[in-house]
Design brief:
The protein contains 14 helices and 4 strands.
């Protein structure tokens, strides 16, 4: 089985999933997966009662941070990274973090924390500061942010989850699988599934079932589905119809939104494969258009047909453009003048839509 590999980071610092394409579907090959508990885990700062002083030189804060516990606010205090930096005793964030959207944890009407994937993203966001400020201060920033932006009850819950999440993260061992792993080997697939199950169990050991489900449930179901796809697509004992049925069942076990997305992606790949076959045969433009219209809609099918059009009249105009372009490039004048003349020529010969078509075909190797 030939495999084309690409990368998808599924969980920061804990799991890497490589997508491999074999036949008409994608198949994931796990390269790294957190599995089990590692020894010698790094300790992190204790949950703060009052926030500890930052390490290193401090920038003066223009005003004392205002706690949401004191104000009773239920909305985020900070509309931007700059607003957070003004309130934080740790001052300016590292430059590489300032362009990343700063998310806020949400609170229910009774003042308790709404536990969802947002808390995982907030934790990982502040851990990014470790590279520039060190891990201890990055965690102190996280705890400070929680206390600044949440009322007392929600803050207490968020600090507890954050602390346990960090313990889970510290104890996550990384199990590596070679890129060359044979995905048709049931032993390799069994090892990958066991690794995923071990990591799932570790999450529940530190976070409990409800929090683990809220933070990782969506991700875990997708990982399980992806591995099932590998097992199905590499099972030579299944007929094409049996594989289709098995994949449909696996999709139906996913949450509705995710099931809809993966089903769409799978059907789209089947369409692209069929279109490729028809294009290789030649003379099937009407059938290709019909297939795309049924799947994408008329407007999208029209755009695709326009961009792929390579009629004799279009080829003649493109050839004329490239010939004059070559004459300009080989003629007198400096480079800036030549490029200016070529740009003017393109605007004279092609409409704006046709210029896009020319660029697309040039990239695909159709034009010229």
């Amino acid at each position: 089985m030939k495999i084309r590999l690409g990368v998808l980071l599924v969980a920061v610092g804990s799991f890497t999933l490589w997508y491999a394409s074999g036949g008409d579907t994608d198949a994931p090959a796990v390269i790294q997966s957190g599995a089990g508990q590692k020894s010698g885990a790094t300790a992190h700062p204790t949950l703060p009662g009052s926030l500890p002083a930052a390490t290193g030189e401090q920038q003066p804060s223009p005003a004392k941070p205002v706690s949401r516990a004191a104000t009773g606010l239920s909305r985020p205090l900070f509309g931007s990274a700059e607003a957070y930096e003004l309130a934080s005793v740790y001052g300016r964030l590292p430059d590489y973090m300032r362009d990343v959207q700063l998310e806020h944890l949400q609170v229910s009407a009774d003042g308790s924390l709404i536990v969802d994937e947002t808390i995982k993203r907030v934790i990982e966001y502040f851990l990014l500061a470790s590279q520039a400020e060190g891990r201890e201060q990055a965690i102190e920033r996280l705890f400070e942010f929680i206390e600044l932006t949440l009322p007392e009850l929600a803050a207490s819950e968020a600090l507890s989850i954050a602390s346990r999440y960090l313990e889970y993260r510290d104890n996550l061992a990384i199990q590596e699988f070679p890129v060359s792993s044979d995905l048709s080997d049931p032993t390799v697939l069994k090892q990958i599934r066991e690794s995923l199950e071990a990591r799932r169990a570790l999450r529940r050991e530190y976070l409990g079932e409800p929090v683990s489900e809220a933070l990782f449930g969506y991700e875990e179901r997708y990982e399980s589905y992806s591995l099932t796809r590998v097992e199905v697509n590499t099972n030579d004992q299944l007929t094409p119809s049996e594989k289709e049925l098995a994949l449909t069942r696996a999709e139906n076990a996913l949450p509705p939104e995710l099931a809809s997305r993966v089903r769409y992606n799978r059907e789209e790949k089947k369409l692209q494969q069929r279109v490729g076959e028809l294009q290789a045969e030649g003379g099937n433009e009407a059938e290709i258009y019909g297939l795309r219209k049924d799947f994408y809609g008329e407007a999208a099918a029209d755009r695709m047909a326009f961009l792929e059009d390579n009629s004799a009249s279009w080829q003649s105009r493109v050839s004329q453009f490239y010939q004059v372009q070559q004459d300009i490039l080989q003629g007198p004048g400096d480079q800036q003048e030549k490029y200016s003349r070529i740009s003017e020529l393109k605007q004279q010969l092609f409409s704006r839509k046709e210029q896009i078509k020319l660029a697309v075909q040039s990239i695909r190797g159709q034009a010229g």
